[in-house]
Specification:
Largest sheet: 4 strands, antiparallel
Strand order of the largest sheet: 3-4-5-6
Mean pLDDT: 90
Radius of gyration: 15 Å
Strand content: 15-25%
CATH class: Alpha Beta
Shape: globular
Number of helices: 4
CATH architecture: 3-Layer(aba) Sandwich
Order of helices and strands: HEEHHEEEEH
Low-confidence stretches: none
Distance between the termini: 27 Å
Length: about 140
Amino acid sequence: MPWVGGISTVADMFRFAEMLRRGGELDGARILSPAILQKAMVNHTGDVQNDLYTAIGAARGWEPYPAYIGLGFFLRGNAICHHQFGTLASPGTFGSTGFGSTLYWVDPEKDMTFVALTSGVMDEGDNIERFQRLSDIALSSAI
């Protein structure tokens, strides 16, 4: 989440992401176990590239970079590259993007949650650059 066909509000997505940031607990209720979250936040793709983002990047002259995919989450990883989570996010930052120009991420090291829900679909390369800028603005204000 977010994903194609998902409908939510910023407030609900923020609560969901906050539950993840808090290790699976929200408002005193255990939603997910810390063990399942730890498993989900492991890079299960190694250094394999994400073919979709490689094609988008190649059209813009970007160097290919690893996919960094966990179980249900994208991960920030160590590469300094074009990334929706920004260039200032910690390597352990995790989250997801949606087709309708939506994004959430959690940076456990900075103890920070970010949610952006927008309407409409834009060119994916432009969307990556836009969310990279917004994420870096948010991260730079927290440093």
